[in-house]
Amino acid sequence: QVQLVESGGGLVQAGGSLRLSCAASGSRFSINYMGWYRQAPGKERELVARYTRAGTPNYADSVKGRFTISGDSAKNSVYLQMNNLTPEDTAVYYCNARISRLIGLRWNVSDYWGQGTQVTVSS
Question: Most Cβ neighbours (<10 Å): which of 1, 80, 101, 123?
Answer without folding.
Answer: 80
